Amino acid sequence: MVAGDAGVSVGRTRAYLGQCRVADVRRCRERFGGVTLQGLGGLKIARYLERAGDLDGVDLDPAVYRSRPAKVSNQLTLPGMDCAPFDWIMAQAELGLPVIRTAGTRIRAGRIDELKAELSQDYPVDVTVVLALDTGWLGRRHIDSLEEELRAADRDVSVLLAAPFNPVDSQRKIEALRRVLRWASDAGRTLELLRTDLTGLPAVFEGAAVAAIGFSTSTRHVGVPFAARQRDAFNRRRRSPLVFVPRLLHWQRANVLGNLAPWDGAGVTHCDCPVCTGSGRDLLRFDTPPEDSPVDEVREHDELALAGVIRQIMAAEDPAAELKFRRVNAVHRARSVASSLNVALDDPPAWLDSWE
Question: Is 3 helix (H, G, I), strand (E, B) or coil?
């Protein structure tokens, strides 16, 4: 963390990458100042970078919570012979990573024994405990228990939230998350938000040491299985790419933005990122038939636009006030478009309108 106004500590943001290549890591590290990699694929890349003497600004999320812990070993074994669970702690320690995270498992809401067990394990080196929590932990029934167990364990933690869609989708859950952030700040403990969306931006002003922000829906929270109806709706929507819209501070489907074409984007689709200014066109260009979707250009835009927004906010004289100004403007702009043009944009995330 770094000290902000009046001595208030401000955390750092970084990119969270799922499946990626070495070139992606280097590019995102330059743009965001740091990168968190995921799982065994991320470990492979980290080892390559370590051999190249180029591991600065890179750390790892073991991401074992995505599935049952795999029995993985670097030893050859006979068929039918069990091998020991992969030692994520040693793998990270051998690389000399600045933070060593536990493997982590998904903890369903209300399973206090599992939460206690995860927080009470001993390790041979200093670690931050990965807690992949179902979003129900932020509900009224379980937030008191979560805060109580965090206080009793008194450990550094990396928090991820699991849900089919946005895990922090209401004012109540936002307030519960802020309680967890206050615990970390008051206790002098390091709390990281991994695999998050721009909810991480206000969080770094209120106690989060790190917010690792993903570019895709799968790297902005821990996904859980959809109901059949939800799956059908999701598959229909995903035929159009999500595009980060700086003036709205969140992602919109390209075909939704396309509805603003009769008004030349209505002041919503303008973007000053290098890829947009270089093309001489705004975000409306991404509304194309599915077979012509410019996936690589959308990704390049998302990275540059998001990095630019974060950099501008953090460079402001009062970053927290700058973020509030921008999110208030974003909410007002979206509501104005909806009421005056009768164009329904995708709903904004709750943090934009409820983090007061």
Answer: strand
- Helix boundaries (H) for the chain: 22-32, 39-51, 88-95, 112-120, 143-153, 171-187, 200-203, 228-237, 254-257, 274-279, 295-315, 319-341, 350-354
Kindly tell me if the per-residue pLDDT of 217 is higher than 70: yes
Q: Are the CB atoms for 197 and 213 separated by under 8 Å?
A: yes
**Could you tell me if 99 and 69 are in contact, meaning their C-beta atoms sit under 8 angstroms apart?**
no
pLDDT at 346: 87
Residue matched to tokens 């005056």: 340
Q: How many helices (H) and strands (E) does the chain have?
A: 13, 12
| Structural domains in the chain plus CATH codes | 2-219 (3.20.20), 238-354 (no CATH)
DSSP 101: B
Render pLDDT for 173-215 as a digit per residue (tens, 0 to 9): 999 999 999 999 999 999 999 999 999 999 999 999 999 999 9
Instruction: Give pTM, 2 decimals.
Output: 0.90
So what's the pLDDT on residue 85? Answer: 79
Q: How far apart are CA 47 and CA 347, in angstroms?
A: 41
pLDDT at 69: 46
Count other Cβ atoms within 10 Å, centred on residue 162. Answer: 22
Tell me which residue of 59, 22, 11 sits closest to 38, measured CA to CA.
59
Strands 157-162 and 191-196: parallel
Is the Cβ–Cβ distance between 112 and 138 less than 8 Å? no
